[in-house]
Design goal:
Blueprint: H1 3-26, H2 34-53, H3 60-80, H4 87-98, H5 100-106, H6 109-133, H7 140-156, H8 162-184
Helix pairs in contact: 1-3, 1-7, 2-3, 2-6, 4-6, 5-6, 6-8, 7-8
Length: 197
């Protein structure tokens, strides 16, 4: 397959994974964590522009399509998402936001991508913890399609460097963990938190 075809497939995977997820959020079937999706909105935007500057080529189209849905899901999470997160999640959010400072200072695409990927991983912890405790509050389709999409993005890059590759590699790993949690973990409800509150 040509890179153009693979980019189209990766972009379609973004639609296949995100459209059902958006519908599930509105219907109350899944409960996205607002903290995580807020940080992901910022991170995806930085990665998009970092890849663009560092020569990722047409592969940025798939990243751009995904970013649009990330913003939509964050906005929906404010109304339909996980409620009453524990205090530790607030610490993760604060730490992730503080990590944006080096990006604002340096403006270097490579340093920016490294920084935001680390922030992305920190921001993922509240969602990983929530999903480990409440696996039914997430959908494996989104995260499984993310693994495939990022795998395709890696094959379509116009240039291979830290700025263009790191985000997709980290997403393959973390989204694979999410799929494992969703499909193998059992519900662990507690008195202090519930995804359905």
């Amino acid at each position: 397959m040509t890179k153009e075809v693979l980019v189209v497939v990766a972009s379609l995977l973004a639609l296949v994974g995100n459209i059902p997820y958006v519908l599930d959020v509105v219907k109350g079937r899944v409960k996205p964590h607002p903290y995580t999706w807020f940080v992901w909105t910022i991170v995806s935007g930085v990665v998009f522009f970092g890849q663009l500057i560092k020569g990722a080529g047409i592969a940025v189209i798939a990243t751009g399509v995904s970013e649009i849905f990330t913003v939509i899901i964050f906005l929906l999470s404010l109304k339909y998402g996980f409620k009453n997160p524990p205090r530790i999640d607030k610490y993760f959010l604060s730490f992730a936001l503080l990590g944006l400072v080096p990006w604002f200072i340096t403006k270097d695409p490579t340093i920016s991508v490294i920084t935001v990927v680390l922030i992305d991983l920190i921001a993922f912890f509240p969602t990983l913890r929530k999903t480990y405790c409440f696996p039914k509050s997430e959908s494996p389709l989104l995260y499984g399609s993310n693994v495939l999409r990022h795998s395709l993005i890696l094959t379509t890059l116009g240039a291979y460097n830290i700025a263009t590759m790191l985000h997709s590699i980290s997403m393959i790993v973390t989204n694979s963990i999410m799929v494992i949690f969703i499909t193998t973990c059992k519900e662990k409800p507690t008195k202090s938190e519930s995804p359905h509150i």
